[in-house]
C-alpha cells in the first residue's frame, strides 16, 4: 500500500507545476491568439469570455504527468514496494490512453483557435480516432491480463457478455470520454467535478492497495486544483478540448483498471447525465419535428449545466451543486466497492 506522505507529495508537486505554469502559458497563449470564440447559440453573457485563452489543459497535463513520474519512481525504487512490471505497464497504458485523447482534443482546439474553423474536427474524424484508441486500450488491458468479459453488479452477481463485451466497452469508453468533454462549459465545472472523482477513486485505489493508480488519482487531482487557480469564475484560461479530452481519458482509465463497470458509472454519474441530456434533447427535438412539424425541447439548453445557467444559477452555484452531486454519487460508488465486491 502506498503511504499517505507520497500521495500528499504527488498532490503538492502537481499543484505547484500546474499553478505556476499559468504565469507562463496564459500570456503566451494570449500573444499567440489561442483564444476561445463564443458563438450565438450560447447564453448571451458567455460572449464576455471571447478571446479567453484555450488549451489550459496543458497545465494540469504537465503537472500531473511530471508528479506521477517522480512519485512513481520513488515508490518503485523502494525494495519493499511489491510492484512489478505489470503494474507499471498497466499505469502506462492508462496514462497513454489519456494523453492520446488529449492529442485528439489538441488537434480540435488548434483547428478552432489557430485555423479559425468553427467546427474543428468533424464528428466522423473524431469518432474514428476515438474508436481506434479505445480498441487499442482494451487490447492493452487484455494483454496485461484483464481477460474477463463479465460485468460485476455489486451485491448481486456477474453477467458475462462474452464476445459482445469488447464492442460494448468501446462504446462506453468513447461515450464517457466525450461526456467529460461536454461537462466543460462553465468556469471551473469540469475541473472541480473531476477533482471530486479523483478523490473518490483515490480512496478506492488505496483500499485496493493499487499504489500506481493511487498516485495517478492524487497527481491528477493536484494538477487540476492548480489549474483551478486560474479557471474558477471568472476564468483566466479554459482547459479546451485538449484538457477535457485528457480528463475524459483519465476518468475512463481509472475506472476500467478496476474492471468494476457499475461502480465506474456511479462515480462518473455526473458526466453520464451531462451527455445523456444532449442525447435526450436532440432525440426529442427530432421526434417532435417529425410529428408536429416543429421541433420541441425538454431543456432550455444542453448540456444540462446550461439549462441551470439559463434558469438563473450562477456559474459558482452550478460548480458547487454539481460537485456535491459528484461527491454523493461517488460516495455510493465507494460503498459499493467496499461492501459489494469480493
Explain the layout of strands and helices.
Layout: H1 4-31, H2 57-77, H3 85-113, H4 123-143, E1 150-153, E2 157-160, H5 165-183, H6 189-207, H7 211-231, H8 240-256, H9 261-267, H10 269-292, H11 304-310, H12 315-340
Antiparallel strand pairs: 1-2
List keywords for this structure.
about 350 residues; mainly alpha; 12 helices; about 0% strand; about 70% helix
Average pLDDT level:
92
Please report which band the strand proportion falls in: under 5%, 5-15%, 15-25%, 25-35%, 35-45% or over 45%. under 5%
Overall shape: it is globular
Please give the largest β-sheet.
2 strands, antiparallel
Tally of strands: 2
Q: Strand order of the main beta sheet, please?
A: 1-2
Judged by helices, strands and strand pairing, the structural class is mainly alpha
H/E order of the elements? HHHHEEHHHHHHHH
Helical segment count: 12
Architecture overview:
This protein is an all-alpha fold and 342 residues long. It has a domain at 81-212 and 235-340. The chain is built from 12 helices and 2 strands; from the N terminus they run H-H-H-H-E-E-H-H-H-H-H-H-H-H. It has helices at 4-31, 57-77, 85-113, 123-143, 165-183, 189-207, 211-231, 240-256, 261-267, 269-292, 304-310, 315-340; strands at 150-153, 157-160. Strands 1-2 form a two-stranded antiparallel sheet. Helix 6 packs antiparallel against helix 7 (211-231) and helix 6 (189-207) runs parallel beside helix 12. The longest helix has 29 residues, at 85-113.
